[in-house]
Amino acid sequence: MSFEIKKVFALVDCNNFYASCERLFRPELNGKPIVVLSNNDGCIVARSNEAKALGVPMGAPLFKMKYLIAKHGIHVFSSNYALYGDLSHRVMEVLRQMECYVEVYSIDEAFISLPVSKTWNRLNYAAELREKVRKNVGIPVSIGIATTKTLAKVANRVAKKDITGVFDLVDNRQTDQILQKMAVGDIWGIGRQSVEKLNRYGIRTAYDLKRADEKLIRKLLTVVGARTLMELNEIPCISLEQAPPCPKSIVTSRSFGHPVTDFEHLKEAVVSYVSRSAEKLRKQEVEADTLNVFITTGPFDEQSQYANNQTITLPRPTASTPDMIEASVRCLKLIYRPGYRYRKAGVLITGIVKHGFKQQDLFASAIPAREDKPLMAALDKINEKWGRNAIQYGIAAVTERPWSMQQSQKSPAYTTNWHELPVVKTAHSSESLNLFKKG
């Protein structure tokens, strides 16, 4: 059965994104094995192709890999989310300059919608787009093109292994051959439990799923699985989401670099997290009316263990940092117990609605809402320009933070912190400076 092609999707995926970000300002690392660690330098969460070839597994604890790292001279970096986030934003801006319809799917992936035309060469255009990202940002990307988003994911896997970095599955006679070599668990949206269900019915490859009975798949994997099956058969079922849906919750939490026992230090950590959560709300133009604060000791702490949380409902949805700080401190006072070595704290924000949309309450307090939107906008603008926490509330502005994460191998924030900008020196820089002073 053939269908008229009405849409063409392209998935733009940054290659080994975290490793590529680290290499951008360290070109001598090109071709060298690199791994990036999780919070507190615990586990390996990203690997370059060279590190993968050496057998470094994803998610492996750092202490178990120390011998392999030393043996092969693998370069190790702590997570630098400020750098990764800024470079991701730059990549997405390049895509938006070239295309109207862009869906940012993750920090290193985006779907775009391409026009359908028999006279237009998609491969040449994708190569041009890929080159523009490399030239403007410096991050290598792979581009997979197909008639559905699921097949675009498949095409992108092939593109990563192609020397050109681009692969087109539209009207491609090799599609079934590619799907036959692809495990069903590698399909976008098919998780481990779904794989187990499908394997019981002999569905082990992407091609098996494509040829499976739709009623069976709907029974096993609900309507989501049925959509995946249809997408593999080139029937678009998943549209491009240009406006991301309102998030159901926002969690900001960290494991501490060192145990925390003092209430003031614990309060500073919670205030820092809730300030970050409020910033995320404002960035997404949403508000929230429910806040949960949680604290816990370490699971392997030799002393007694303790964990607790407290939820508070605010009078009205808000994205105001001072309102949320006040609520979080109240929650913390109710659950804090002295004498424990706390290892982790966090803030969970729920009850999120779009800004300006809220259910009215007949019995709500008549206290007027805090009018600090201009202040919050100014604070966000300054921090965006001068770096996170350039301006912050005094209750969280401390110089020593025993609760901060361990990031012993973190690279500089090359693009978001004035004090960490890369310095370029030349052989004649000193001489030029002296001539400038004399002139």
Polypeptide structure, described:
This protein has 439 residues and is α+β, with helices and mostly antiparallel strands. It is 38% helix and 20% strand. It is globular and about 65 Å long. The chain has helices at 17-24, 49-53, 62-72, 81-98, 122-136, 149-161, 175-180, 192-200, 206-210, 214-232, 263-283, 321-335, 373-386, 429-438, and strands at 8-14, 34-37, 44-47, 75-77, 102-106, 109-114, 141-146, 166-168, 250-260, 286-297, 307-318, 342-354. It has three domains: 8-14 and 84-232, Alpha-Beta Plaits; 17-80, 3-Layer(aba) Sandwich (MutS, DNA mismatch repair protein, domain I); 250-386, Dna Ligase, domain 1 (2-Layer Sandwich). The termini are far apart. β2 and β3 form a beta hairpin. The longest helix has 21 residues, at 263-283. α4 (81-98) packs across α5 and α11 (263-283) runs antiparallel to α12 (321-335).
**Major β-sheet annotation:** 5 strands, mixed
Widest sheet: strand ordering: 5-6-1-7-8
Radius of gyration, in angstroms, nearest whole number? 25 Å
DSSP helical segment count: 14
CATH architecture of the largest domain: 2-Layer Sandwich
Report the CATH topology name of the largest domain: Alpha-Beta Plaits
What are the segments in which pLDDT stays under 50 over at least 5 consecutive residues?
A: 432-439
